[in-house]
From TrEMBL:
<dbReference type="InterPro" id="IPR036259">
    <property type="entry name" value="MFS_trans_sf"/>
</dbReference>
<keyword id="KW-1133">Transmembrane helix</keyword>
<feature type="transmembrane region" description="Helical">
    <location>
        <begin position="40"/>
        <end position="60"/>
    </location>
</feature>
<feature type="transmembrane region" description="Helical">
    <location>
        <begin position="149"/>
        <end position="175"/>
    </location>
</feature>
<dbReference type="InterPro" id="IPR044770">
    <property type="entry name" value="MFS_spinster-like"/>
</dbReference>
<feature type="region of interest" description="Disordered">
    <location>
        <begin position="188"/>
        <end position="208"/>
    </location>
</feature>
<feature type="compositionally biased region" description="Polar residues">
    <location>
        <begin position="193"/>
        <end position="202"/>
    </location>
</feature>
<feature type="transmembrane region" description="Helical">
    <location>
        <begin position="66"/>
        <end position="95"/>
    </location>
</feature>
<keyword id="KW-0813">Transport</keyword>
<keyword id="KW-0812">Transmembrane</keyword>
<feature type="transmembrane region" description="Helical">
    <location>
        <begin position="6"/>
        <end position="28"/>
    </location>
</feature>
<protein>
    <recommendedName>
        <fullName>Protein spinster</fullName>
    </recommendedName>
</protein>
<dbReference type="GO" id="GO:0016020">
    <property type="term" value="C:membrane"/>
</dbReference>
<keyword id="KW-0472">Membrane</keyword>
Amino acid sequence: MLPRVSLIFGGITMLSGVVGVPLGAWLGSSLIKRFPRSHPIICGIGLLISAPLMTLAMVLCEGYFYAPFVLMFFGEVALNLNWAIVADMSLYVVIPPRRSTAEAFQILISHMFGDAGSPYLVGVISEALKRYYSTPQEPASQSAKFRSLQYALFVTCFVEVIGGVFFLISALYIVRDKAKVDRAIAEAEAQNAEPSHSNAQEEASVGE
């Protein structure tokens, strides 16, 4: 089974995305009408649920085989709840002319500090820990290498907790920010409608 660990982990990651992303979108669309702050709350709770599940999965992976995969699946499902909702929130708290720019920045920053930057950070921490466990006379053992990578990966769970807290904080402001955008859109539409109304009046007076 050990040679298939990477394949199993990849399959679990893919399946958790297939389940988690639509589930998050469904929860967001179902709850937003009754609870206007539900979007950031779903994202925050999802991250705060994912963090302990992923931490426990990494802690148990040394002595168990199936339990870590089960925990990872549910942890990644909870993590993937926010994908569709974050895209939605990024759009409705920004006025229409700036939405494409906001979405581009959101994608850029999430990839810059996520799948692009995090492997480097985890690697740096892991290498530092391996040097701590080793000496010039005795290189790090396989157990020390495993422990170094395991401890380095705990950083991602810590970041999940920080992200969850920030999502919950944003729930305090999301309704106000959306109302500002809706008001700005309504004012812009009213201003655009006024000239056409004036032109119609002028044409009517000329016709008379």
